[in-house]
User: What shape does this take?
Amino acid sequence: MRRFAIMLLSALLALSLAACGGRADTPAQPEAQDETAAPAVETAPEPEEAPAETAGDTLVVFFSRVGNTDFPEDVDAVSSASLSRTNGALKGNAQLMAEWMADEANVDLFEIQTEETYPVDYRETTDVAKGEQKEDARPALKSHIEGFAEYTTVYLVFPNWWGDLPMPLYAFFEEYDFSGKTLYVSITHEGSGFSRTVSTIRSLEPDADVIEGISIRGSDVPQSEEIVRQFVKGNQSI
Assistant: This one.
C-alpha cells in the first residue's frame, strides 16, 4: 500500500512538471507598421514677401489746392479748375502728377500744406493768391519734411499762379537749403507755361542744380499719366 502511494505521488509530480514546461511565455510582438505610409515631413513656412524698398535719396514734393482747401464732398471737379476725380477720389492736378512720379520712381511723397486754407471757389483762390503775391507774403506751413538732408534728388510739382510760384513755395524754399541737391521743377498751368518759375527757384537756391521738367495745362493733366511717367524714366538719377 505504501509502495502504491509513492508511485501515485511520483506520477502526479511528473504530470505537474510537464504542464509547466508546456506553458513557456512567448514574448509580446511589436505592432506591425504600415510600410506604405509616407513618412511625416516638416515643411518650412513660406517666407513673407519683403516690401519693395524705395529709393531713399529721392523725394517728390508737391503743392496743390487739394490738401490746402476744405472742399465739400460733393464738389464738382469738372467745373472746378485744377481739380479732377480719380476712382472717385478728389485730386489736384499737381497732386496727380506728383503721385505718378512717386509711383514710377518708387520714392517718398511729400505735400506742402499751409496753416490757413484757401477758398473753395477757384476765382476766389486766384484773388487770394494775387493778394499774397502783392504783399510778398509767406504763408505759414504746417507740414515739414523729416530727414531732408538725406535726399539728394527732389521732384517738385506745383501750379503756376500769376506767372510765378505760389507764395507758400517761397516759404518752403526759405525753410530748406537745396545746396548740392538736384531739383526737377514741373508745373501745371492755364496757358502761361513755366513763366519765370524756374529762374526764380534758381535765384532762391543758387547752389542747387535746378532742372526744368515738364509743364502741363491743367485740363490736360488727367490724360497725361504716360507723359509724366516717361519723364521720370528718362532721368538717370532714378
Observations:
- Residues 58-233 form a domain with the Rossmann fold fold (CATH 3.40.50.360).
